[in-house]
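Hi R.,

Here's the input for the flavin-adenine dinucleotide complex you asked about:
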Amino acid sequence: MKTCDVVIAGGGVIGGAIALELARAGLHVCVFDRQKPGQEASWASAGIISPAPENPGMIAAVELAKRSAALYPEFVAMVEEISGQSTGYRRKGTIQALFSREAKEELSTIIALHHGLGLKAEPLGAEDARELEPTLSDELEAAVLRPEESSIDNRLLTAAVFEAAQRSGAEIFPASRVKGIWREGARCRGLLLENENVEAQWTVIAAGCFSGTIEGVSAYAPVKPAKGQMIALRADNLRIERVLWSEKIYLVPRDDGRILAGATVEYVGFDKRVTAGGVERNLAAAIELVPGLKDARIQETWAGLRPDSADHLPILGPTDLHGLVMATGHFRSGILLTPVTARLIREWITDQKVSLDWERFSPLRFQRAVATG
Ligand SMILES: Cc1cc2nc3c(=O)[nH]c(=O)nc-3n(C[C@H](O)[C@H](O)[C@H](O)COP(=O)(O)OP(=O)(O)OC[C@H]3O[C@@H](n4cnc5c(N)ncnc54)[C@H](O)[C@@H]3O)c2cc1C
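And here is the predicted structure with flavin-adenine dinucleotide in place:
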């Protein structure tokens, strides 16, 4: 039987970053993934680092998101230094394009909302926006510049995080499916694998949208997959510097010249097939935002599964089983929320207290909701 201080179920960017933080704090950490780590949502993502809420329901997570975005430069520097690998971190801001006839009114509402939440946002006229990003459509009416937002190549980041975690002493076990938690009374003793048990003082569940399929975990992590289809384009004579958004699509430039476009949000179970409808939707919206993309080559299409929770907020922290901690439900913001999640889980495990109010993200909130009807 293996023993370690902390055992982590799931080797996405979240499990990897927690392993890195804890290993750097001197703990013996083991990560178990049923396949090669980093092949699910953390691979499929667009890697936008934007604390701005996509809808009113996400406002509850803005403070957490701001904290994570602020940690990013230091986190990336640490990961790149330890791993010796680049992460494609681009701190160039993002531009939200507005096309409607009511764009002027929309603009003041968006700016006021951002400023009310303590987020930097500047109004741009159509000409000013096109001066910054000449490929934007002529149909543009106005735009919002969010100068502090950024993006990262999530595939490079995840690989670098695992390299850094291993170099810091964490042990990674691929092809090791976790069946369930090892429960003894009110205590979690570790994980149950296919052919062995792993004993640990602390057990962290970070299996993304699959977390609820691990036996003994579903009450704390009622997560479901939210499929997102993406497309990567390559256009030799067209340059985009910043992440561009419209209400239908985002475009994310990568250092290697690819332009990512996405993404759909579909509730179709654990299905990762790319569909004609998904590709059509992404292409049409991408060309509407940047018409020059009609001549671009399609380099890759893929789909991934975001871990969505019942209230769309992350599920973080201790449970009522001693030693069992959740780190899942990051939905559309798991790349953004990676540094703060790793920090909070490490603080909980090493100090049993955290530097941020995370009650609203508690894994116990779903049981309380059932109890109160
Ligand atoms: C199309 C798309 C676009 C996105 N865009 C953005 C974005 O721009 N910005 C942003 O911040 N976020 C974005 N996200 C969300 C973000 O990618 C996720 O929230 C984040 O990657 C979740 O990371 P994770 O480590 O929790 O899960 P995952 O990366 O899914 O990792 C879970 C791991 O657990 C393993 N596992 C599952 N079951 C078991 C088991 N029983 N035993 C052992 N291992 C198991 C899996 O193999 C996997 O490696 C996007 C997601 C998608 C799909």
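One thing worth noting: The first helix runs from residue 13 to 24.

Cheers,
M.
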